[in-house]
Amino acid sequence: MANKRARVMYDFAAEPGNNELTVNEGEIITITNPDVGGGWLEGRNIKGERGLVPTDYVEILPSDGKDQFSCGNSVADQAFLDSLSASTAQASSSAASNNHQVGSGNDPWSAWSASKSGNWESSEGWGAQPEGAGAQRSTNTPNNWDTAFGHPQAYQGPATGDDDDWDEDWDGPKSSSYFKDSESADAGGSQRGNSRASSSSMKIPLNKFPGFAKPGTEQYLLAKQLAKPKEKIPIIVGDYGPMWVYPTSTFDCVVADPRKGSKMYGLKSYIEYQLTPTNTNRSVNHRYKHFDWLYERLLVKFGSAIPIPSLPDKQVTGRFEEEFIKMRMERLQAWMTRMCRHPVISESEVFQQFLNFRDEKEWKTGKRKAEKDELAGVMIFSTMEPEAPDLDLVEIEQKCEAVGKFTKAMDDGVKELLTVGQEHWKRCTGPLPKEYQKIGKALQSLATVFSSSGYQGETDLNDAITEAGKTYEEIASLVAEQPKKDLHFLMECNHEYKGFLGCFPDIIGTHKGAIEKVKESDKLVATSKITPQDKQNMVKRVSTMSYALQAEMNHFHSNRIYDYNSVIRLYLEQQVQFYETIAEKLRQALSRFPVM
């Protein structure tokens, strides 16, 4: 049987020494092994070179050899998938091109300002958003997804048939070795693959898209009788309004000790991290794709009520460089800390199982149980019990509008600070140090010229000018290194909040959709489509949703106040120390000049 051929949809640069094949968009390759495993296939290019290529980077051509993008297809579903793949490839290519233009090796945030944190451009879009779980925006997905499918952040799930890969690669220490590699001189690493849609683990099942989704808020609002779930999420009224009930003891999770492991007899490599909850001090190991799985489960279960920010991007090339490993670990640490700080997420069964499984069997059992959880999407509200009287519809709508207005304004402010910070980072690591270096060299050159005069009385002056020049060269180094000590943390904090804020348009959309359903209930009662009791239940349930939104916003605000107070204080303290260091160096240079 002849080998199939495939068209390459994205550029892919092979990782040296990792049995991969470099391919370019539009290239036709021959598939020599379609299922190597782990989201990879083996291919051969026209030069006869063989190697591994991410499965999602290619499109298998029909058996007649014709490119399905250049010919018609009478099957409607196939046409849909064809247009999906074409638009995705075009958007990814455009995004990659834009990111390349603005990117800088010294600027780890160059890709952030090029992407949106949510569909804030049209407030009308909120009510029209899909109402199920997982309807959340990605901060890194090309804008075409916004208009084509409504919720680009929705995790597309592990590869179909990937369960065997999970079973083989459970988090045992047997295949790991300490990761040691040469340190990259590039502060941010050369990061590619910003679109999560192009990740090798990202298949595209149709049921993840709005057109194929089950009904949204109706499933919760119009249920004749809600089942009594075992898990309860209480909402109490505190000094600042509705709030989640916080556990009596809190914990964090330390992400550390990145190790390089291998599979497929050493053919493929990966990095896994050690996670140690502070309340148990018992460590477990997880790969990035396991974090991705956790993100998916949390998004599906809680995403209608709680913002679940996306993980740091999956990366195909450069993923074993030490600087990239360090950056990813730092961001995974921040993500895990956020989840640990949330009173609902941190106490959830799926999160606890992720941190506390004891062996392979327990991991598989917990994983499959989480994937079958029916209390997800809008049904998560059925587990919530406000200890407060029901709200009227006017108040519910006002609360929803207030949340939408604030989060939209904060999103604009965060994006502005990210843009300004990015520009400042580039200036501090590029033009500004060079200007100080030029001043330093110019002063030293002037001292050299003065020394050639042969005049005996100017030695002290020339030495002082030379030292002043060296001082400015030292200042240049200080300026170039300073952003890593202060601006870095401010930018990382803003990046985290950009991820949070990008989730709110869809959360608001879910709430607005529920409010509209309640407004329509009078007509449904009048036409005997629902009973007055059904309407009363709808009002009660949308009131529960409102309490949940207010409780989440109180949690959000308390974290926001703490985080920005901490990070801006740190920034200012470092800035003061930075300028004091420069002032001291200038005073020392000044003291060398003779008093005339």
Strand content: 5-15%
SS element count, helices: 16
Instruction: Quickly give the structural class.
Output: alpha+beta
Number of strands: 12
Average pLDDT, all residues = 76
Overview of this protein structure:
Its main location: membrane. It comes from Mandrillus leucophaeus (Drill). Residues 251-362 form the PX domain. Residues 161-170 have a biased composition (Acidic residues). With 596 residues, the protein is α+β, with helices and mostly antiparallel strands. Among the domains are: 5-61, SH3 Domains (SH3 type barrels), CATH 2.30.30.40; 238-388, Phox-like domain (PX Domain, 2-Layer Sandwich); 396-591, Arfaptin homology (AH) domain/BAR domain (Substrate Binding Domain Of Dnak, Chain:A, Domain 2). The protein has 16 helices and twelve strands. It has helices at 76-102, 124-127, 144-149, 163-168, 218-221, 288-302, 322-341, 349-356, 360-371, 393-429, 431-451, 459-481, 487-501, 504-519, 521-526, 532-591, and strands at 5-8, 28-37, 40-44, 50-54, 58-60, 176-178, 233-238, 241-244, 253-263, 268-277, 284-287, 384-386. Strands 4-3-2-1-5 form a five-stranded antiparallel beta sheet, with no helix packed on it. A four-stranded antiparallel beta sheet has the order 6-9-10-11.
